[in-house]
TrEMBL record, chains A, B:
Protein name in the entry: N5-carboxyaminoimidazole ribonucleotide synthase
Annotated SUPFAM superfamilies: Glutathione synthetase ATP-binding domain-like, PreATP-grasp domain, Rudiment single hybrid motif
Keywords of this entry: ATP-binding, Ligase, Nucleotide-binding, Purine biosynthesis
Catalysis performed (reactions): 5-amino-1-(5-phospho-beta-D-ribosyl)imidazole + hydrogencarbonate + ATP = 5-carboxyamino-1-(5-phospho-D-ribosyl)imidazole + ADP + phosphate + 2 H(+)
Protein origin, superkingdom: Bacteria
Function: Catalyzes the ATP-dependent conversion of 5-aminoimidazole ribonucleotide (AIR) and HCO(3)(-) to N5-carboxyaminoimidazole ribonucleotide (N5-CAIR). Catalyzes the ATP-dependent conversion of 5-aminoimidazole ribonucleotide (AIR) and HCO(3)- to N5-carboxyaminoimidazole ribonucleotide (N5-CAIR).
Name of the gene this protein is made from: purK
Functional pathway: Purine metabolism; IMP biosynthesis via de novo pathway; 5-amino-1-(5-phospho-D-ribosyl)imidazole-4-carboxylate from 5-amino-1-(5-phospho-D-ribosyl)imidazole (N5-CAIR route): step 1/2
Residues reported to bind ATP: K100, K140, E178, E179, L180, V181, E186, N264, E265
InterPro entries in the record: ATP-grasp (IPR011761), ATP-grasp_carboxylate-amine (IPR003135), ATP_grasp_subdomain_1 (IPR013815), PreATP-grasp_dom_sf (IPR016185), PurK (IPR005875), PurK_C (IPR040686), PurT/PurK_preATP-grasp (IPR054350), Rudment_hybrid_motif (IPR011054)
Record flagged with keyword Transcription: no
Length: 377, 377
């Protein structure tokens, strides 16, 4: 019998699990939020993941339940576990990824390197933190943020009045304030861990952000071999082991101007900074996630070419889909690996990505950017 | 709007078109012969491809119809074309691949290198051909053969009495006799051609057969660079252009002991000898086939590693599926790319394949064979 994976959420991460499931002979079923989701080919059900009954019915007869996103409520997750369903990552691990205050508390308790931070319940808490950190800090909602949403750089507590007014609420019961880290660049380290303990790591990558959204990834991060790579991998392995993460874990990192590596964010699922691995690594993060959550032996994370560069394609103000521009991009960049998520191209929305691999970094960057810019129109 | 490809036939070739369709944002629909086909994830309909009405209904609203196999009757193909459906490869091209006598006649007329052959209508025709070719020749049914079926090496016409008795019938209106070629090895050359003319070629590969079935493929064929590769590519390009093939064309070749390259068989679709390209080439034969039949610009056919080795997995006498052996194979060969076709493991049936790529051929062969043998049990 084919092993069956149930994925909650029908976004592009679920979509990109489909090809490796086909290869490995796994059955993949997706509980999508809407008809016509990005993962529609594998969507066996459309329903609300906040509803325990819906999720329990979906999880019947699957070998494991995993996720396209981290938003499934703890009550629903625990109902699954109580019903005997194998859930990976487990609710206890996901709890840490679902709330940035919990995450900071756990990482600090583990002695892992993080920016200075504070739990902020009132404007005066924030005023104190501002005064201690040069008058300019980052404030984040504890819950519900993504791609720059729920993150503001502020010089005065009045700049997050609306967030204070909403507390406690869907964004959490307090805010998180963090020092503005002086960083040289952003890195990301992905690892995968099986329930039985095996962990593998991909090379640490450089992540280039624009407007709070990941724009480009270079794998491996140039010049990272040695100390930086070792620190990044050690941090991610520790997080995976200590938090009991199963499946893929992505750790977003700052490489500071004083040569430290600090943890920025965690994601307990395949992550945008690992998309390069589909075309650049022997085992992609999507195949590895499927292996890991099924507790199957993990695949080789080596690379064939020296460099992989991934560039996101965002929906733009111009009308038109990636499909409209396929012929032009293919003609211009025959070596570009195109990934179209099958989503409506709303402005700023991630609708796809392009990866190019090769041994000359300048050439690889040029090709990947050219292809992505063609799509952007 | 996403481009839509309709595939007739639900075998593993249709199945392996699904991952690149997901990547490129194409919609893929499959007309499968049965429920639970290898391509079931994309099967939108189950029906009989001999029935024009079924196929016409399936083909409504697709941008192109293409094939998992070459068995769709000419009458059905022509009904599609008359209804205005884009069909690739076109009926005229497929006609040549559907009948080995027609193929030999066309290739000979084009002056392409083929083994000596003759059209055999009676036992006395075969006696004459035997006498002229050392008393031992190959006889093939014109239609319906695959994987060694419909092929016999004979020393007497009585050895194909059953085939004569069935003429004219489903195996054709005559038999094909061919000289027994003294060959050093078997090669295969795949190319892809768009309706608008662009052609690209992958490296020529070596195909190792066991019991008339492709067992292993080494890409590129060792020691083929130069004259052999040039001849193989020139032959395949000529076939594609002269026969008007669209999509992927695979040409099976003999490399003779006297250093000639002769055409053995043709397939106008992705082919077992091209499966290595999924993991070994920038653009796989399945992605390329989708691009080509949609008349989209073709992708780069370069390779990342020096060598790719593919080994087929056949159903064995032991019970059990590939799924049962996944953990053992993954633990033993973390670099093996596993492709499980999701088929019942009847003895001798191709149920999957394994590919390993790398720069040390001995090592790559060892890993690929080890993984495939683990599956065979």
């Amino acid at each position: 019998m084919a092993l069956t994976v149930g994925v909650i959420g029908g976004g592009q991460l679920a979509r990109m699990m489909v090809p490796p499931a086909v290869g490995l002979g796994l059955e993949i079923r997706v509980l999508a939020e809407t008809e016509g989701s990005s993962a529609r080919l594998a969507a066996t059900e459309v329903g609300d993941y906040h509803d325990a009954e819906t999720v329990l019915a979906f999880a019947r007869d699957v070998d494991v339940v995993t996720f396209d996103h981290e938003h499934v409520p703890q009550g629903v997750l625990r109902a699954l576990v109580e019903a005997g369903v194998s859930v990976h990552p487990a609710p206890e691990a996901l709890f840490v990824a679902q709330d940035k205050l919990v995450m900071r508390e756990r990482l600090s308790a583990l002695g892992l390197p993080v920016p200075d931070w504070a739990r902020i319940e009132t404007p005066s808490d924030l005023d104190v933190f501002l005064a201690e950190h040069g008058g300019r800090v980052v404030v984040k909602t504890a819950r519900g943020g993504y791609d720059g949403h729920g993150v503001r750089v502020v010089t005065s507590s009045s700049e997050v009045d609306d967030w204070f007014a909403a507390l406690p609420g869907p964004t959490g019961d307090a805010l998180l304030a963090e020092e503005l880290v002086e960083f040289r660049r952003e890195l990301a380290q992905s690892v995968a861990r099986r329930p039985s303990g095996e962990i593998v790591a991909w090379p640490v990558v450089e992540s280039i952000q624009r407007d709070g959204v990941c724009a480009e990834v270079i794998a491996p991060a140039p010049g990272s071999a040695g100390r930086i790579a070792d620190m990044a991998e050690a941090i991610a392995r520790t997080v995976a082991e200590e938090l009991g993460v199963t499946g893929v874990l992505a750790v977003e990192l700052f490489e500071t101007t004083d040569d430290r590596v600090l943890i920025n964010e965690l994601a307990m699922r395949p992550h945008n900074t690992g998309h390069w691995s589909i075309d650049g690594s022997t085992t992609s993060q999507f195949e590895q996630h499927l292996r890991a959550v099924l507790d199957l032996p993990l695949g080789d994370t080596g690379t064939h070419d020296a460099w992989s560069v991934m560039v996101n394609v965002l929906g733009g103000p111009a009308t038109g889909t990636m499909a409209d521009r396929l012929p032009a991009v293919m003609a211009d960049q025959p070596g570009a690996k195109i990934h179209d998520y099958g989503k409506d191209p709303r402005p700023g929305r991630k609708v796809g990505h392009v990866t190019v691999t090769g041994d000359d970094l300048d050439d690889v960057v040029f090709q990947a950017r050219a292809a992505a810019e063609f799509f952007a129109g």
